[in-house]
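re: that complex we talked abt at group meeting.

here r the seqs, copy pasted straight from the sheet so there may be weird spacing, ignore it
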Amino acid sequence: MPDAGHALALAAPRGLAVSRPVQLHIRRTGRWADYRVEVREGASVLEALEEAWRLDHSLLFRHSCHHGSCGTCGMRINGREALACLTPVAQAARGGRPVRLEPLRNFPLLGDLLVETQQVAAGIEAVGLPIVRDADRPDGHPAEGSPPEQYENCIECGLCVSACPVVGSDRQFTGPAVLAAGGRVAEERRAPDGLAAMTQVSGEHGVWRCHGAFECSEVCPAEVDPAALILGLRGGVFRRSMAGGRK
Amino acid sequence: MWFRAEGSVGRWGFMLHRLTGLALSLYLGVHLVLLNQLRAGPGAWDAFVRLMRSPLILALDALLLGAAAFHGFNGLRLTLLGLGWAVRWQKVMLWASVVLAAACTVWVGARMICG
Amino acid sequence: MKAKAAMPSGSARGVLVWGLQAFSGVLLVAGIGLHWLAQHLVVEGGLRDYSQVVSYLREPLVLALETSFLVVVTTHALLGLRAILMDLGPTKRVERLLNLGLGLAGIGAVVYGIELTLELVR
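got the structure back, here u go
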């Protein structure tokens, strides 16, 4: 069983002639552990992690699609939030440095690299995306690239929540993922007024706690640009208030 | 905590805005307290003013003005962003705030120290 | 007549606090610039001596502007401190104490400033 200070150098990738060595420095529960593995050229950090798992089955982490659409392999790679399946080892281990892996911040830790992100999905569901009937669509589908369209790319990975400096200090803060969903609802012109229904995003620990650090948009792997949605939502709430509540 | 030496330029801008705000708030308190010297009459105040003309204090004043300039320009940026306007220009505006603040610091510093 | 839309509950205070912070901030961009120019660029040597301070404050327009400046800068500073403290996620009770404490500090600062000015110009 590997522990801090002992790097295992085993497990060449099966059936591949060209491989590269990589050292993983992983934050496990209460300690750091090092693994030295070999991966194919062009491998992702997730593949390297899977090689490490072959050496040590007690290592906890989540993975599924391996192509950036499920959002389950989110973690902090060299201090920055990213999806492990989309991060090339060549980039993460540039210059031969060890790749530092840590769990996402601001979520309950289940063990090693595994955190509980259910609150993101639950919060987004609570915001309530509208159901729009064909009969209620006067102006058709939103334009491509518009904020409502962009938000559809959200894979609920939680990277934005981990990166947000406000979530780290205010546990009551709604957070960028749920606020961005709120922004999506507010942008939806085909449905009944969604803004009024979003009590959980509009209070002082909702949209007013965002201070425009833009970390959420920096780390979003799906190009949702949550910061733009959140600031648009804030602007909408403010303008509506100034207009005396009139649409 | 909100202060970590990491992250994108947006995060650094957010931290710098907070730090300059805290520094300016502290300065406001100190400034109001020091104005109490005026109650002691011309002798005490004029001696205090002579002290404030030392190069070190003038250099600190220039830095303070730089902090105020960044906080002000970035504050205008945050006001626009908070209304949902010019969001795509947020990085440009942030760098503009930094450059303008640096320019103010240099200009004021040169003026104060060189007379 | 446009339909009256419902405001999401909980937003009124957020709108008020942010609006006041933004508005006072915009005023201060000009205010601090003017204050700094008036204190450091108008007089020889860049700092007013005692007699210059008194004669400056005796101008009614100056007195009004500097008093307004004090109110605006104190409001903005205390709302900023409040924002930082609110980010720590205080309980409702602590939040009320915070609002009270900062409010009293603000009133105290403004009263002190006005009282000092009136004593000097008497």
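couple things i noticed - Residues 27 and 96 of chain B are 25 Å apart (CA to CA). DSSP finds four helices and no strands in chain B.
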